Amino acid sequence: QVQLVESGGGLVQPGGSLRLSCTASGSSFSLYSMGWYRQAPGKQRDLVATITARNTNYGDSVKGRFTISKDNSNNTVYLQMKSLKPEDTAVYYCNVVTQLGLASYWGQGTQVTVST
Q1: CA 70/CA 59 separation, integer angstroms
Q2: Are 4 and 75 in contact (CB under 8 A)?
Q3: Are 51 and 35 in contact (CB under 8 A)?
Q4: H helix or E strand, kind and range, residue 48
Q5: Average pLDDT, whole number, for the chain?
Q6: Is 61 helix (H, G, I), strand (E, B) or coil?
Q7: Which residues, other chains included, contact 28 with Cβ-Cβ below 8 Å and sequence gap of 6+?
């Protein structure tokens, strides 16, 4: 089992920045990928960004504004969000996929609200 703890959400004005963090913990796991997804009210959960040992992948709507990174020493993934727009408002969920069995785990979600 892998547990995920997210932090960093909140209220920000349009054009502002936020950084989300997600730390994975558990016993004897190795991660294939870490990433972020988001879900706005009444909409499906969409890809924001993922990162593996070899590459990063971004959703079209965040390219050039968001940056994903990770610290392998403590199994933490970060999402630096800049030039935030009201349409970025959503619950952001951390996701990890393990090397063994490609098991997928989700965090509890953190609210990001972009508004004046």
Answers
A1: 18
A2: no
A3: yes
A4: strand 46-52
A5: 95
A6: helix
A7: none
Q: Which amino acid is at 43?
A: K
Q: How far apart are CA 113 and CA 116, in angstroms?
A: 10
So what's the pLDDT on residue 20?
Answer: 98
The number of residues making up the chain comes to: 116
Q: Alpha helix locations (H) across the chain?
A: none
8-state DSSP, 103? -
In degrees rounded to 5, what are phi and psi of residue 21? -130, 150
Tokens of 49: 């960004």
Q: What is the token pair recorded at 55?
A: 């590459």
Token pair listed for 62: 């965040």
CA dist., res. 26 & res. 49, Å (int): 23
Residues 1-17 have pLDDT tens digits of: 899 999 999 999 999 99
Residue 63 dihedral angles phi and psi, to the nearest 5°: -60, 135
| Residue 20: CB atoms within 10 Å | 23
